[in-house]
Amino acid sequence: MASLRLAFHLITISILIFFLLTISTPSTAAREEEDEHVFVRRIDRKLIGLKKKEKLSHFRFYWHDILSGRNPTAVQVVPPASNTSATLFGLIRMIDNPLTLSLEMKSSKMVGRCQGFYASASQQDLGFMMVMNFAFSTGKYNGSTITVLGRNAALNPVREMPVIGGSGLFRFARGYVEAKTLKLDILTGDATVEYNIYVMHY
């Protein structure tokens, strides 16, 4: 009889200790949830200026890629992996290209610059990976940027690349660009490309 009482008391004490530990020690899931709340929270979209409806805008300008002369705007930073590569595979050029309203750069107003780089990323055809910020310097868009990241199949008449974001008036931007080469100097590599940007923004 005494042994039964002792066993009963031991079981009761064990259950009580387990219950107390369960209450005082948060579960792993609870701790993870608390940690998550330390660095993320939901906010009202109006607090960051998303008060207006999303709109679609179309921009058109000319992108001047200048490799020649005393002041080139496209500079090679990594040469092709092989001198025999027909596609210049591995080539990387850093760019700070002027953006103008008309085809002729010298007689046109500059509205911004395209800064970033492009790299030859194809061994079979002439295909560049384009990483570009279109940084505007005029009007209400002064200081705002549109960011493009995509594949440029340079020999196609028209190439399409995605808009992946932006800053300033183009926060949360999305859309695409169409690029069309209008002038290309075979000897120097200088090129003028018409860019049409279709972008959704607030």
TrEMBL record:
Lineage: superkingdom: Eukaryota
Biological-process GO terms, alphabetical: phenylpropanoid biosynthetic process
Disulfide bond among keywords: no
Signal peptide start and end residues: 1-30
Keywords per UniProt: Apoplast, Secreted, Signal
Pfam families associated with the record: Dirigent
Keyword Signal: yes
Subcellular location(s) per record: Secreted, Extracellular space, Apoplast
Major location (coarse): secreted
GO cellular component: apoplast
InterPro entries xref list: Allene_oxi_cyc_Dirigent, Dirigent
Family of the protein in this entry: Belongs to the plant dirigent protein family.
PANTHER family from the UniProt entry: NUCLEOPORIN-RELATED
Description of how the protein assembles with itself and partners: Homodimer.
Function of the molecule: Dirigent proteins impart stereoselectivity on the phenoxy radical-coupling reaction, yielding optically active lignans from two molecules of coniferyl alcohol in the biosynthesis of lignans, flavonolignans, and alkaloids and thus plays a central role in plant secondary metabolism.
Record protein name field: Dirigent protein
Lineage summary: Eukaryota, Viridiplantae, Streptophyta, Embryophyta, Tracheophyta
